[in-house]
Amino acid sequence: MNKTPLDYTYWKDEDMWLGYLDEYPDYMTQGETVDELQENLIDIYKELTSGHIPAVRHHAELIVA
C-alpha cells in the first residue's frame, strides 16, 4: 500500500489538539493527543476522498504569469 504525505495545520486549544488538512480547510477535527488528532485527520481524508460526501471543497494553488 502506498503512503501519501498530507500537509495539515494544528494547534492546541486548552486541553484539545485541533487541526485540518491543508487541502480541505473546511473540515476540522480534534483529539486529546496529537496522535489521536492525526488518526482523526486520516479518517476525514478517507471520507472526503471516497466520493460519498457531495460538494467537497478543495484548496489549490494557482500560478499567474
Secondary-structure content class: alpha+beta
| Mean pLDDT over the residues | 93
SSE sequence, one letter per element:
EEEH
Strand order of the largest sheet: 1-2-3
Q: Report the portion of residues in β strands.
A: 25-35%
How would you describe what is shown here?
- By secondary structure, the protein is of the alpha+beta class.
- The chain has a domain at 8-49.
- 25% of the residues lie in helices and 31% in strands.
- The chain contains one helix and three strands, in the order E-E-E-H.
- The protein has one helix at residues 34-49, and strands spanning 8-13, 16-21, 24-31.
- Strands 1-2-3 form a three-stranded antiparallel beta sheet.
- It starts with 7 loop residues before the first strand and ends in a 16-residue tail after the last helix.
Topology at a glance:
Layout: E1 8-13, E2 16-21, E3 24-31, H1 34-49
Antiparallel strand pairs: 1-2, 2-3
Task: Please name the defining characteristics of this protein.
65 residues, three-stranded antiparallel β-sheet, 3 strands, 25% helix
How would you sum up this structure in a few lines?
This protein is an alpha+beta fold. The chain has one helix at residues 34-49, and strands at 8-13, 16-21, 24-31.
